[in-house]
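Lecture notes, structural biology module. Today: joint structure prediction for complexes of two components.
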Amino acid sequence: MTKQNINVALIGNPNTGKTSVFNQLTGLNQQVGNYPGITVEKKVGFCKLAHNINANVIDLPGTYSLNASSADESVVIELLLNKNDKLFPDVIVVVSEVENLKRNLLLFTQIKDLEIPTILVINMIDRMKLKGISLDIPFLEEHLKTKIVLVSSRKNIGIEELKTAITTYKTITTEACLNASSIDDDYFNTLRKTFPNQSLYKLWLVITQDVNFADLNRKTLENESFTKSKSELKKLQQKETIKRYQFINDTLKTGLNIDSSIATDFRSKLDRILTHKVWGYLIFFVILFGIFQSIFEWSKIPMDFIDSSFASLSTAASENMPPGAFTNLIAQGIIPGIGGILMFIPQITFLFLFISILEESGYMSRVVFLMDKIMRRFGLSGKSVVPLISGTACAIPAIMATRNIENWKERLITILVTPLTTCSARLPVYAIIIGLVIPDKYLLGILNLQGLTLMLLYLIGFGMAILSAYILNKVLQLNCKTFFVVEMPNYKLPMFKNVMITVVEKTKAFVFGAGKIILAISVVLWFLASNGPSKDFRNAETIITSKTENATLSKVEIENKIAAYKLEKSYIGLMGKTIEPAISPLGYDWKIGVAIISSFAAREVFVGTLATIYSVGGSDNDNTIRNRMKEEINPETDQKIFNFASGISLLLFYAFAMQCISTLAVTKKETNSWKWPLGQLVFMSSFAYIVALIAYQLLK
Amino acid sequence: MIQDILTYLTLAFAIVFLVKKFFFKKKKTNKNCGEDCNCQ
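The predicted structure, tokenised, for the full assembly:
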């Protein structure tokens, strides 16, 4: 029998165990060299097969597709397109990995189009049982038009079968497994006519290689009837990839089955616990509680530092700058206003740090899956979970994220209820009020009351969102349902760099997005608080001095009385006094009323507004924002303004009220109607008012 | 006097900024951009 030499090319995605297969096939018979002109390593090994066949096995660099964009990837294409290369393969072995078959098959379907006999190796089959994976090999062989060999290169399983398959490579059909040219029939027909003797897919690869490697020297052809612009070719490439994935999805729907309930690997075991109907929720709530505890505990010191730094800055400004209106604007308006937002950077940072870690580690996908079970009971789509969870950062991108919900009614309900989840703008309001009215004590020695309250507020927001969805579902008579598909990523240690980038970006967006508005509003508020229309405002000093002539008051006390009187008679005081009758049943004074009105633009303005108002009307002794709020006394009741009853009432008001113009604008845009944002505004605001009223009246 | 001018200038800037922010939103320059954040 005569000896026969054949070339076998090993091709596959990176990390599919291609080199292990190569080592198993060739043993120590290897040569390592470089492809000419580039520094990409090539390996050629020798393997003796049955029927006197000697195989040159070429281990090509790992590539994800034939749409190469890097030097090592182009090595693969150049070899496959050049029939004159002495290593041009007689047979190609595409190595795939059983856990990532879908991704790996893209390259396989492209290679099949080259009309070269191709064997599909499915590697790492020893993990099939661990992962609960089963394959319908006859079905896959029929649809992929290939010979499939199951291999475990680590455990030396299937190598002999692979050698046999290589030996009989001539029996394998070179027919393509899908008709990729259907993405643009006209274009490919023109190509076919222009180059009648060429393989259509090879032509396509040559043309697109030119697109991928723009710096190549190229000849201009006279006949340009078949040419397309680079952007058109790129779009066609994308269409080709989508078509291939559609084919792969259809094939794997039947050919691959993953039953996670019988999987025995660590990830599957962990998944079973984290998505368990009891333990899953318990673990989630423990993690949630841990996060809110830490937000309060760890932020304490930096928050105090920022608060007192801005107080000192304000004092320094008023002491060192020449006296006048502009100095007052800086010391009493701008600095306290900015301080009021920067003070919350530590808490915002910790919130995003934890959310980012949960997302990076892969746990968040499990939470989405876990919560989907609850969502469905309330008539929401599983896809609604993503907007509701991302609403904890900001309702605006969350509402935009509802676009992937196909069913209009489900999408509408999700848009309407998303603003009820606690966004980061509520955090400063919650933080300052909780700090004022909830004692910093521990329940059972471990549960911090302030952290617990914060967690309850998040849960109330989320609970109200799904309860509203349930009611809307009944009112709108929602009948149709959509399917929910979520891909569970592998668990991994969060990358420090990724986490930090997310934290910095989100915190920056919060500070600069809200900061500019707060700064501008602080300036306007300061002006309104420092000027008044009546004679009483201008003659405040005379009026108070004459009133206190007989009283034994210190100079500071008289100054405080003048400041308070001027504030009451200022524009902002008059505005606040006008709305006071409406808000006093909720336990709020006119100053809180002004803060509620100004924070209609954005919730976080609430703290900045109070900081500005109290700076204008406060004394210099209690110069931090929190101390000023803590000491504020209601002159009518002689009680502290921020007591337990009014504090809880305010917390509940902010939990439900629609205090965000931008959210209303986005709702209008997404629903293309004013009806829904107006409904949202009326419902949320009146509900917030009623709940806050009940809470205050019960607790006072 | 200078302090008063600076104060009124700052106030005017603040009001113009707020009016522009909430009543006259900037139109996107790039037609290919969707509604995503950071798309210029």
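Point to remember: The first helix of chain B runs from residue 2 to 23.
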